[in-house]
Design brief:
The chain is mainly beta. The chain is 0% helix and 52% strand.
Length: 121
């Protein structure tokens, strides 16, 4: 059974930075696509960034391009999301996930429990 555990969320002022981590256990996810998603209160879950398993090509939502960086360390079975220049609209629960492809959302089979990111003005 695959488990994903996120960490690194918290409260940060607008313009600040955070680094999220997602540690996987149960099996190696080196061949899986992995992604970061977020869900704000009252809104649908949306993709933030994703990275393929083979080759490591990455994808970003337009709203975070140039500010967020997704990366993975397959040796540590860990996914990261470096976030900078954070904006209040980035306040949400951030989830990591692993699946067969970077898209669509339904391709992701395994989900973490989420970590809260709150960006204050």
């Amino acid at each position: 059974q695959v488990q994903l555990v996120e960490s690194g969320g918290g409260l940060v002022h607008a313009g600040g930075a955070l680094r999220l981590s997602c540690v996987a256990s149960g099996r190696s996810l080196s061949g899986y696509a992995m992604g970061w998603f977020r869900q704000a209160t009252g809104k649908e879950r949306e993709v933030v960034a994703a990275i393929s398993g083979i080759g490591g090509g990455s994808y970003y939502a337009d709203s975070v391009k140039g500010r967020f960086t997704i990366s993975r360390d397959n040796a540590k079975n860990t996914l990261y999301l470096e976030m900078s220049s954070l904006k209040p609209e980035g306040t949400a629960v951030y989830y990591c996930a692993a699946g067969e492809a970077v898209a669509p959302l339904s391709a992701y089979d395994y989900w973490g429990q989420g970590t809260q990111v709150t960006v204050s003005t």
